[in-house]
């Protein structure tokens, strides 16, 4: 009577134990029990699914933790378990188990103390679930985030660099003397440099960004010498749609001379245009210097009339023109009589004065289409297009008269000069530069030989000469009226 219930109870307990074992061995997650020395007492078969290790070899291992936990997390895992043994507080943490192939398998581990009937800690229980796929997703996410961060950092780096580049470019563009203006496709101001403001006469703090071309033009209208012509030029450039415009010169009302050029700004895409750039250059000084150089090259510095060099150019041009049109060219070669004695008697400066005054006087005698040159010390020439011998003789008469009538006073003594003139006509007396000049020279020497203060027509066409009346060529230095 007494034994039966005990046997029955034992059978009942065996059944329950078998059931519990079945449940424990069938759990999906990993279950394990360690004694307080971390010796593995039992581990569920699910360990094989996660790590490839059989429960038996785990339990036979001298140090199950060494076998089961991946070396990266081993020290950490031991630290956490020791902490739990010390304070009895459960620990939940993620760790990597070591698979048979050496790879890591992530699990979420939960460590609990299992109290024994006796006081104190009897065993440690580990429950762990496989979180490998979650970890992989997390890794991928992390990788994506890292990639994004790297891309962001790169973008910021390039942005910084492009800002630096822009600053450098702006500094450079502000230093150069060319005015630069960028317009966008909608014809609004996109960028301009300091020189552009200076050239267009805007104050330094003027704000033009975003301004329409029409507003810009209305601002400029009063500054330009011929605003309508300039705007017509701009319209022509824009209409022509040429990639690059030719240089255009225009003037401001204050006398400055400016040139502009314009080019289409191409975008990154094929055939894409993102606007237009205008370049302005103040060429006032350059134009002044080149005019000065031209003047120096072709004018006589004492009298400021054209020199021998320009004489040859004009003679060549007039002869070519006359030959083409079948017209004539008259050449007057003028040599002063008695000029040297003035130099000798009153000095070189007095001679200079005579030359300057004489040029002034002759300048009033020649007509607009007649060109007057100083071709030597006291030698001059006049070129007359489309003329006749009679007209040239009449001009020579006027010249002899006006030169002969000039009176100078140096050191209280009156003096003057006369002129000997030789006349030659193209094509009668010479059909090219050389022969025409030789003909005029020959006629001029004849005037000298025949008594000076006269003109002679080239003998190559028959010859003719005339002496001027009432002249003092016999007494060149001192003239007492
Ligand atoms: N003051 C001055 N004298 C000059 C200049 N160029 C040349 N001469 C002088 O002009 C003179 C020209 O000489 P000539 O043609 O023999 O002088 P001329 O007395 O007119 O002689 P004829 O032609 O024979 O009448 C020389 O004494 C030169 O030194 C100049 O720019 N200024």
- Fraction in helix: 40-55%
Uncertain spans, ≥5 residues at pLDDT below 50? Answer: 469-481
Structural class: alpha+beta
The unique ligands bound to this protein are:
guanosine-5'-triphosphate
In short:
By secondary structure, this protein is an alpha+beta fold.
Verbal overview:
The protein has 481 residues and is of the alpha+beta class. It folds into 3 domains: 20-130, Beta-Lactamase (2-Layer Sandwich), CATH 3.30.450; 176-287, Beta-Lactamase (2-Layer Sandwich); 301-467, Reverse transcriptase/Diguanylate cyclase domain (Alpha-Beta Plaits, 2-Layer Sandwich), CATH 3.30.70. Helices cover 46% and strands 24% of the residues. It contains 15 helices and 18 strands. The termini are far apart. Guanosine-5'-triphosphate binds next to β11, α12 and α13.
State the main characteristics.
six-stranded mixed β-sheet; 481 residues; Alpha-Beta Plaits; binds guanosine-5'-triphosphate; alpha+beta; Beta-Lactamase; 18 strands; rod-shaped; five-stranded antiparallel β-sheet
Q: What's the structural blueprint in terms of helices and strands?
A:
Blueprint: H1 3-26, E1 30-35, E2 40-43, H2 46-51, H3 55-60, H4 64-68, H5 71-87, E3 91-98, E4 104-115, E5 121-130, H6 132-175, E6 179-183, E7 189-192, H7 194-199, H8 213-220, H9 227-240, E8 248-251, E9 257-266, E10 273-282, H10 284-298, H11 308-325, E11 329-337, H12 340-346, H13 348-365, E12 371-374, E13 379-385, H14 389-404, E14 408-410, E15 413-415, E16 418-426, H15 433-449, E17 454-457, E18 464-467
């Amino acid at each position: 009577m007494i034994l039966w219930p005990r046997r029955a109870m034992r059978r009942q307990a065996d059944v329950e134990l078998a059931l519990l074992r079945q449940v424990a061995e069938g759990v999906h997650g990993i279950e394990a029990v360690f004694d307080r020395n971390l010796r593995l007492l039992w581990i569920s078969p699910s360990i094989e699914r996660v790590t490839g290790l059989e429960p038996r070899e785990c339990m036979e291992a001298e140090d199950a933790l060494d076998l089961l936990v991946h070396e990266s997390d081993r020290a950490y895992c031991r630290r956490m378990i020791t902490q739990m043994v010390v304070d009895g507080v459960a620990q939940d943490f993620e760790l990597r188990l070591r698979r048979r192939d050496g790879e890591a398998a992530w699990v979420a581990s939960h460590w609990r103390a299992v109290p024994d009937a006796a006081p104190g800690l009897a065993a440690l229980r580990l429950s762990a679930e496989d979180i490998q796929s979650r970890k992989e997703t997390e890794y991928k996410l992390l990788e994506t985030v890292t990639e994004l961060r790297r891309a962001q950092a790169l973008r910021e780096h390039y942005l910084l660099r492009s800002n630096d580049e822009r600053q450098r470019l702006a500094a450079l563009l502000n230093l150069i003397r060319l005015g630069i203006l960028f317009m966008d496709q909608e014809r609004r101001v996109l960028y301009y440099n300091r020189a552009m403001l200076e050239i267009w006469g805007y104050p330094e703090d003027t704000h033009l960004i975003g301004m329409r071309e029409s507003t810009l033009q209305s601002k400029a209208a009063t500054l330009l010498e011929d605003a309508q012509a300039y705007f017509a030029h701009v319209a022509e450039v824009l209409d022509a749609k040429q990639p690059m415009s030719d240089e255009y010169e225009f003037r401001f009302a204050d006398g400055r001379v400016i040139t502009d050029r314009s080019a289409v700004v191409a975008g990154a895409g094929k055939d894409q245009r993102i606007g237009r750039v205008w370049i302005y250059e103040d060429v006032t000084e350059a134009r002044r210097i080149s005019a000065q150089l031209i003047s120096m090259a072709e004018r006589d510095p004492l009298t400021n009339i054209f020199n021998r060099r320009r004489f040859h150019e004009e003679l060549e041009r007039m002869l070519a023109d006359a030959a083409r049109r079948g017209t004539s060219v008259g050449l007057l070669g003028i040599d002063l009589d008695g000029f040297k004695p003035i130099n000798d008697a009153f000095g070189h400066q007095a001679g200079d004065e005579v030359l300057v005054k004489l040029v002034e006087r002759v300048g009033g005698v020649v007509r607009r289409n007649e060109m007057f040159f100083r071709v030597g010390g006291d030698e001059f020439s006049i070129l007359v297009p489309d003329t006749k011998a009679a007209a040239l003789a009449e001009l020579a008469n006027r010249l002899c008269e006006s030169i002969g009538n000039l009176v100078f006073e140096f050191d209280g003594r009156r003096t003057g000069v006369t002129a000997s003139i030789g006349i030659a006509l193209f094509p009668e007396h010479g059909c090219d530069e050389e022969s025409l000049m030789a003909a005029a020279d020959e006629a001029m020497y004849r005037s000298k030989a025949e008594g000076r203060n006269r003109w002679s027509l080239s003998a190559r066409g028959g010859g003719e000469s005339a002496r001027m009346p009432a002249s003092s060529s016999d007494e060149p230095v001192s003239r007492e009226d």
